[in-house]
Amino acid sequence: MSLVPLPRLIVEPLVRAALLEDLGLAGDITSASVIPRDHHSTVVIAARQPGVIAGLDAAELAFALVDPEIVMRRHLQDGDAVKPGDVIATIEGPSRGLLSAERTALNFLGHLSGIATVTAGIAAAIRGYQGFRRLHAQDDAGPQGAGEICGASRWRHESPFRAL
Backbone phi, then psi, for 82, in 5-degree steps? Predict the structure, then answer.
């Protein structure tokens, strides 16, 4: 599925605010105190359960804002379905930056993917559902029938759900 990404102008203030909240005024003091400045790492983001991916732009931006040397290579795109173990992205760069951004990146990715997964489930449940149907043909009879269309007794709701 091809999705149109949100403009960076919209996403960046949200990611910046989340990073500022997470890192505070001192930054990631733990990483700065125990990890050498020149240490580099490679991180793999993989699915732990089935779902639909969303939030890769925000995750990638979190890493880029913390350290422009970090490179994220996407193996999947927003809107793709995943199963446990599927590799979503590989991120490489300075370890301090990776650790400083990873919580914010994963929070965006996890939250937005959760919403996308639930939305995909709802879409699948109602696929083929036609909504409301008129009970009487005269409801299409023009202005004189227009008032009848508003009457609740003239409509029936066909639910895609059933009680168990």
Answer: -130, 160
pLDDT tens-digit readout, 13-42: 999 999 999 988 888 888 888 999 999 999
Cα–Cα–Cα angle for 5, 109, 28, rounded to 5 degrees: 115
Average pLDDT, integer, range 59-72: 97
Distance between terminal CA atoms of the chain? 33
Which contiguous run of DSSP H or E holds residue 11?
helix 8-23
Task: Select from 15, 20, 32 the least CA-distant residue to 109.
Answer: 15
Q: How far is CA 7 from CA 14, 58, 66, 163, in A?
A: 12, 11, 19, 42
- Among 125, 133, 126, residue whose Cα is nearest residue 156: 133
Residues in the chain: 164
Q: Are 148 and 136 a contacting pair, CB within 8 Å?
A: yes
Distance, in Å, from the CA atom of 144 to the CA atom of 31, rounded to the nearest integer, reads 74
d(CA 65, CA 107) in angstroms, rounded, equals 15
Q: In 3D, which of 119, 102, 100, 128 has the Cα closest to residue 33?
A: 100
